[in-house]
Design a protein that fits this description.
Rossmann fold; 56% helix; single chain; mainly alpha; 27 helices; 4% strand; five-stranded parallel β-sheet
Length: 733
């Protein structure tokens, strides 16, 4: 499905609503609930099931088992609230599988004391996947599965206590199996609590015991590497070269002034700095264990974690390079530790190493959804088994960053609010465990990351409040991240603070916050060497220009616009067409807009207005030429608006009473104006409001042809207009 297909967005909105309802239903922790989740797209099913597991198995708020006095908790670090099981195709009896799991892992007793026997924790909820694989099984196996479902009626009707009845069950099925259950197991169907149907195209079931369904390579989900993101601590907090641009000073027109957007968002959060090479494994599998041993039989490790690990391994490469088997070796070692009932600290160290291995892969640029999920699940298991680890703050920081990266990994951008909020919770947990006096570097890093996460959360809700939280986090980071500690990181954090102040200024106290943004940017600029860091230096100059341009809308417009022009010109010394053409085009567009606004101030003299309009034209032409030369590279500014503004500048130049050009010169400028307005009109067919504004400019320019050059000029203009537009234009002349 194309990303431009509107059905994709409708499906996404629908699926997001269904997911939230399903998550809420599972979060209530009620007994004897039977939920059916219907999904024909296996990749989507895997993604949703993995997300439910990572969110509900060990909830963020209960990661640390630290109940307050007089309060009870319904989980321990090592005992999950949600368990994922894959249906046993040899004996497809979900009730027996659940009871067997509970026999192996009975709920632990908590609250025991000499005067009180304690009580068992609640039985977890079970989600069961793999029913679709029955389609490839003999008919007898399929009938056996339906037979076991029919027998569930006896269990539900019984008054006797059992582990199955104490739990809730989520059964993942496809639509054909939904129909089969409804017809062939009516008793089971009658006991259902709710049905959650996800939209998606059917995926043919494939039987492949060695390589389970992959979450990536989905037809309608594109899991690529993070755009413009590095996760190496040495580069993560500084703006990446070339910078990622999310919009510049917009092209403004007399009809409508668009609110400006800063070009550079805060750079993405970084992982805790660790050694680039993994330390020696704290656990080693026994010599009888073969790396090629199937992992499908592991019974003590989350099935979802095992399958995700398998999904990340390339079989061909794995046979050639021993290192590629390391994840499997660690899993086998963890299984042995479970069997031997090793100390929780040993299990935590093994899971931690598995997380570190995948974190290293992510740092090297392989930030696929599978790698992110393995790292998250492994780190959460490590925390669950050892809540006293001295590395706990670092792991919590990394978990915050991993959840943040889930938001930035397509197609999760639209669903990012939940991921960002989870990341923020982990950052805040980490900060509660760090003393800024004893660990100032780590404390500052996490605060910087927290600020970035709040800035991203502002895109989804309460922007003013969340940008205020970002400002507070960056300010707190700078209280402990000094110039002496790390000059470049200090400068990067000041740049982040400037960006947060700029955004905050769009919601309240614009003058106060824009001036603070400029001050922070200047602090950052003071610690960048223009010769050694030309791209970052030019980027911050561009940001300062944007802030001055914005400030000019509130006070001292002439002075602030001139300041913006000066710093944009300074930025262009380093953001050249040869080195960073897209960044150069963005700044040229900003410069042109600043010239245009300064030209149209009431106090600007007629002579200076003509000069400024010509400078604006030169800058717009440079921006547009560079943009067209980039061959599809994404732009950070509206190219159609730039065409419109260039046309408007040519129009104003000619129609101003101080213009002294002859008729051929006037005709030349008006022809250019009309041409650019028509180019903009051609690209705005799907934007009704902008299309009507541009259409009005076309009509206005044709009238100017008549006013300046007579009926011959009007006929010349009409000859350049596409035929389908003529009837509507003639009606308005």
């Amino acid at each position: 499905m194309s990303v431009n297909d509107s059905a994709h967005h409708d499906n996404f909105a629908w699926n997001r609503q269904v997911y939230h309802r399903l998550k809420l239903a599972l979060s209530l922790g009620l007994r004897r609930q039977l939920f059916l989740a219907v999904c024909d797209d296996l990749q989507l099913r895997n993604q949703v099931a993995a997300r439910l597991h990572s969110t509900l198995a060990y909830p963020v708020g209960q990661v640390l088992y630290q109940p307050q006095d007089g309060q009870e908790t319904n989980s321990t670090p090592a005992y999950p609230r949600l368990v994922t099981l894959r249906l046993n195709l040899n004996e497809p009896n979900p009730v027996a599988q659940i009871n067997q799991w509970l026999a192996n892992y009975p709920p632990p007793i908590v609250g025991a004391s000499p005067d009180h026997p304690g009580r068992p924790l609640p039985v977890p909820t079970f989600q069961i996947v793999g029913v679709e694989q029955l389609t490839k099984q003999p008919v007898a196996v399929q009938r056996l599965f339906l037979h076991y479902l029919r027998l569930c009626d006896e269990a539900f009707s019984s008054q006797e206590s059992s582990g199955f009845l104490e739990s809730s069950v989520l059964l993942w099925i496809s639509r054909p199996w939904l129909s089969a259950i409804q017809q062939s197991a009516p008793q089971f169907w009658r006991w259902r609590t709710g049905i959650f149907t996800f939209a998606g195209e059917p995926t043919p079931a494939k039987r492949n015991v060695n390589y389970p369904e992959r979450v990536s390579n989905s037809r309608n989900l594109d899991f690529g590497n993070l755009e413009g993101t590095s996760v190496n601590e040495s580069t993560i907090e500084a703006p990446p070269p070339p910078p990622t641009e999310n919009g510049t000073v917009p092209v403004a027109t007399p009809a409508k002034r668009v609110s400006s957007i800063l070009e550079i968002p805060p750079p993405p959060p970084g992982f805790t700095k660790q050694e680039s090479q993994l330390s020696e494994s704290p656990v080693k599998p026994s010599e009888t264990t073969s790396p090629s041993q199937s992992l499908t039989s592991l019974s003590h490790i989350s099935q979802e974690l095992t399958e995700l690990v398998l999904a990340t391994i390339n079989a061909k490469v794995a046979q050639e390079e021993e290192d590629n088997w390391q994840p499997q070796q660690i899993l086998l070692a963890i299984e042995e530790l479970h069997i031997k009932q090793a100390a929780k600290e040993e299990l935590a160290a093994a899971y931690h190493q598995l997380g570190n291995l995948y974190r290293l892969r992510i740092e090297q640029g392989h930030s696929t959804l599978e790698n992110l999920m393995v790292a998250i699940l492994a780190y959460q298991e490590a925390i669950a088994y050892d809540e006293q680890s001295p590395q706990l703050p670092d792991i919590l920081n990394d978990l915050g960053t991993l959840y943040w990266m889930l938001y930035r990994t397509p197609p999760n951008v639209e669903a990012g609010q939940n991921y960002i909020e989870q990341g923020i919770e982990f950052y805040q947990l980490a900060l509660k465990m760090i003393s800024p006096q004893t660990h100032p570097e780590t404390y500052a890093r996490v605060q910087n990351n927290l600020g970035t996460a709040f800035g991203d959360l502002a895109k989804f809700s309460n922007p003013g409040e969340n940008w205020q939280q970002a400002v507070l986090a960056y300010t707190e980071a700078l209280a402990y991240r000094t110039v002496e500690m790390d000059t470049l990181k200090y400068a990067a954090c000041q740049n982040n603070l400037g960006t947060a102040y700029w955004h905050l200024g769009q919601y309240n106290q614009p003058v106060v916050h824009l001036k603070k943004a400029i001050a922070a940017y200047n602090q950052a600029l003071a610690h960048y060497n223009a010769e050694q860091e030309p791209l970052k230096y030019g980027m911050i100059q561009n940001n300062i220009g944007t802030a001055y341009w914005n400030l000019a809308q509130y006070e001292q417009p002439a002075e602030n616009l001139q300041q913006a022009i000066d710093v944009y010109c300074e930025a262009l010394k380093y953001r050249t067409a040869a080195t960073v053409p897209s960044a150069c085009a963005a700044t040229q567009n900003n410069l042109a807009t600043a010239y245009w606004h300064l030209a149209n101030l009431p106090q600007t003299t007629k002579e200076r207005k003509q000069k400024l309009l010509k400078l604006s034209i030169i800058a717009y032409e440079e921006a547009i030429a560079l943009a067209h030369s980039l061959n599809g590279i994404p732009l950070s500014f509206d190219l159609f608006a730039a065409h419109n503004n260039l046309g408007l500048a040519h129009y104003q130049l000619v129609t101003d009473i101080s213009f002294n050009g002859d008729k051929p010169t006037r005709s030349h400028h008006l022809e250019i104006a009309l041409d650019h307005h028509l180019q903009a009109l051609n690209g705005l067919s799907k934007q009704p409001e902008a299309y009507q504004t541009t259409f009005a400019y076309v009509v206005k320019t044709i009238r100017a042809f008549h006013n300046e050059l007579g009926i011959q000029g009007q006929n010349l203009a009409l000859s350049k207009v596409p035929g389908q537009l003529l009837p509507e234009i003639l009606a308005k002349l």
